[in-house]
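Revision sheet: structure tokens.
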Amino acid sequence: MRPEPSAGGAAGADCEERQIAASEAATEIHLIWESISYYVNSDEEWATETAPGGKVDVALYRTSIELIKDIPDPHRPTELGQPWSVTRDDAVRLADLLERAAASGTPFADGIGDQIHTLGASLVSAQFGMHGAVDDMCYDPADELMAAGVEGMLAKLIPPNSTETSRTTSPDYSNFWYASTDSIDALANFYPSAIEATGYEATLAYDERPDEVRWNMTHPTKFFDWSVILTTRSDGSGTDVSITFTGEP
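Predicted:
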């Protein structure tokens, strides 16, 4: 079961090691789903695929599913397949059926085999939700909190007549995109004083109007730098503005 958040991060200091183990478990689970779907259709095939060296390892499936069954869904929805929370109960139920089948030895004759085949085949598409949950299990909300100093600077740099279109934030890297209806010339007049208001001066500037204008600012320690880039939209409707901060101010 995924541990409670620790002081060092939402997922705990050892999360990377646990994620590697969970990823290996998820791969084994997916391979067994596929093997059941393709190769287990009769008692003869069940005997072959569950024998040593076969593709269906009942004990490994139980160990693997117990390792990852309680991993929560990603903090952002996955685009492919259903979330892991929707299919995990069926994945666990398959472990129970496999163990009943192993005890039986003739699951198809006993009416268990068809259930295993149908459930295993239906779970193959659940790989996306399962792997998405595993890939995200070390997510720490603090990773998306931008430094307080950046937040204060950004407030002075938001372009006039604009809408924020995208952002990526973290303590040591943040990028913000805005779409402004102002022309690149108007924004080229706005930004020198806006940059000055942050307490910084441009260490490097490019002016290639009408296509692009750029300012780069670097802290004397070299551990923090940021930039503002203006790009004229191809349809002439205004200007795209990118503001990027690297490091902590």
